[in-house]
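Question:
When you can, review this sequence-structure pair and walk me through the tokens.
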Amino acid sequence: MSDTQLKKGRLGVLGIVFFVVAASAPLVGMTGAVPVAMLAGNGAAAPGAYLAVGLVLLLFSVGYTAMSSRVTNTGAFFAYVGRGLGTNAGVASAFASIVAYITIQLAIYGFFGGLMAGEMAARFSIDLPWYAWAIVAWLIVTGLSLLSVDVGAKVLGVLIVLEVLALFTTAIVILVAGGPEGMNFGASFSPDQIFVGGFAGGAGIAIAFAFASFIGFEATAIYGEETTNPKRVVPKATYWAIGIITVLFAITSFAMVTGMGASKIFDEVIARSAVEGVPLANPAGVLFSLTDQYVGSWMTQIMSVLVISSLFAGLLAFQNANSRYFFALGRGGVLPKRFGMTNNAGAPSAGVILTSVIALVVMVGFAAAGLDGIGNLFFWMSAVAVIAIIFVEILVSIAVVAHFMKEGGENVWRSKVAPIASAIALAVGLYLLMSRFNLLAGTVPEGVDPSLPESAWQLNTLGWVLVLSPFIAALVGYLFAVVNKKENASLVKDILS
């Protein structure tokens, strides 16, 4: 039996929060992004950069959740943009969103495969290439995604609770110990320290990495159709998810600064992350060495396993998000009708299969070309994903203002002030991300050091193709919608329902 509606009542606030926090992969961010934000960015003030970005996204959520009370659709972003700016713009945003979710999932497959290859070779002398482990994860993720969504939520729930507990426990132990210099809140959270170096320099780099660490929070509304009361559940889940991610990153990164000493942060990060004299060759070494020092090697061992499970949880979360976007486009007539149907378990099976096929084809292509899972697939795809999602978030903020100007029904704060302010703040973030794309993705011309302020906007040919791909996808989607008037009629009905 198939249906054109996702089954209601499968998810509550906690279930959605698990999916969203899983998508942010906090342990991966703490071991991968935060050390880079410290060393190449604003040093001891990296925790403040994460806090600032969290506040910007909370501001975005004011208008986002206001719109969620008007529109309940599993393709949330495109439905919101379509309601406010028209169906053609909605389809354009959908194409950009699909680029975001597909690329971030591909990035996680690359990271998962690379880490598993290293762990299994070191621990059990099982020497397999990164793509072999990535394909094992691919099989499991595809199977779970074809089951009822609440099965996936239960799996994620266990993994995320363990991950968050490990990070909070480690942070609290370090903060209680006080580190070599004690807790220096001013060094980490005062505005003059957060924005040291300016947007073109250290502050911009730290903020760019912070934005990248939050990708996935906006997926709360995607699961609205699968709740009993989306108008109540989606706003609560959104605020809870952003709050948890913000607090987790800010507190844990502050504990890392405290454990190393704010005045010695650059030397300490280099020493703890270097391999054969190369800084940041092993960024996870920063958190792991601090955990060894302050908590014990037993916690480090747990964390090394949880990094893998964190990546797997992210894969499952984005697989669900991808498949629901395809479902919404199928039901709206943009994709073939079979994409708008669910299987007996209530899962959008055609979307799951298409998402998996795309992932497999790309992974096989990277493997055949001899490219690395982490050095190439992870860094290239994650950089594209964060550009795409912030671009769409800006469109959503503009659409919120446009919708409520036409329809009314909300106060000035929720309908105008917050979404306009968030659009401006997100535009600044997008500029920073694009200008520092060479550092995020490692796509620089020969002889250019991407960590230097003067290297902003210096990209090689591949870098320009990657950084522009979300905008190209949006243009293709817009033109597709303009040409396909019949499909637009179905889409209008879906957006307005």
User: Anything to note?
Assistant: The chain is about 75% helix and 0% strand. The longest helix spans residues 87-124.
